[in-house]
Amino acid sequence: MSHETQAPDPVLAAYRKSIDNIDAALIHILAERFRITQAVGEYKARATLPPADPDREARQIARLRKLSEEADLDPEFSEKFLRFIIDEVIRHHEKAARGD
Which CATH superfamily is domain 10-98 in? Predict the structure, then answer.
């Protein structure tokens, strides 16, 4: 029994190309966000401000949950995603505060 190679599905290929473009944009957006938060961490270290700001974090999470609902995106997913990013930023800020 021979297996014929099927031609790629052009509709699926177009969807995947869009997904790949979006993934690339997300990586660039995250890289820019972390460049900025790194500068914030360095500033906080120089100004002897605490690495974390729980009040701002709570406001940001509430804001993004609302945006998620408006965009038809699961707010639980959005909060987990943002929490992951915030935790990483805080880790960087703590390193900056220690002078690492």
Answer: Chorismate mutase (1.20.59.10)
